[in-house]
């Protein structure tokens, strides 16, 4: 499946000429907090291929499946294709997902997954830049769920989004598609 057709990924909007693609650019700068309470910006990740996912730790079903798939895909890429991907999980529920909570959650899947949280405003701004939909849905009492789009973004070492993946991929398919994108970029 190809990337979303109506969007221009970061770094691809400068094309001029008759075949110029128009649409919203995905991606942008951010300042968040990692699971060790350190301030992190997008500049900390320059030079790495990144698989970026927006989710939350109390997600009942699709969220954990996606994080598991992310973990499995990076293991496949590492062990079978010798390709290094930096997996990043950005919470869309910073009220509940403290750095310590995020660290414990992600360790259950793969200790290499970088967890990011931060003030609600910073999370909302990053989500808007990456065209991520999320909305708090009130439940009984103080409990709530967060509806969200479950896309993963593959970013090249210049931090340009090169592919968007939806929930229809298996870990093996995701690893294969990421491998193709990395090979395409190196030629």
TrEMBL record:
Q: What is this protein called?
A: Protein SCO1
Organismal lineage? Eukaryota, Viridiplantae, Streptophyta, Embryophyta, Tracheophyta
């Amino acid at each position: 499946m190809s990337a979303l057709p109506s969007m221009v990924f970061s770094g691809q909007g400068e094309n001029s000429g008759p075949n110029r693609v128009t649409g919203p650019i995905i991606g942008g700068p951010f300042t968040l907090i990692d699971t060790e309470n350190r301030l992190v910006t997008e500049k900390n990740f320059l030079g790495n291929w990144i698989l970026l996912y927006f989710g939350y730790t109390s997600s009942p079903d699709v969220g954990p499946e996606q994080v598991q798939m992310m973990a499995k895909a990076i293991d496949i890429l590492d062990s079978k294709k010798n390709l290094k991907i930096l997996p990043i999980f950005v919470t869309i529920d910073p009220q509940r997902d403290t750095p310590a909570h995020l660290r414990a959650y992600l360790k259950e899947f793969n200790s290499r997954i970088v967890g990011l949280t931060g003030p609600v405003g910073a999370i909302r701004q990053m989500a808007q830049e990456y065209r991520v939909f999320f909305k708090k849905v009130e439940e009984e009492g103080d409990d709530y769920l967060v509806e969200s789009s479950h896309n993963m973004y593959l970013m090249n070492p210049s931090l340009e989004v090169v592919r968007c993946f939806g929930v229809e991929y298996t870990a093996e398919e995701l690893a294969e598609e990421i491998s193709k994108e990395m090979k395409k970029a190196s030629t």
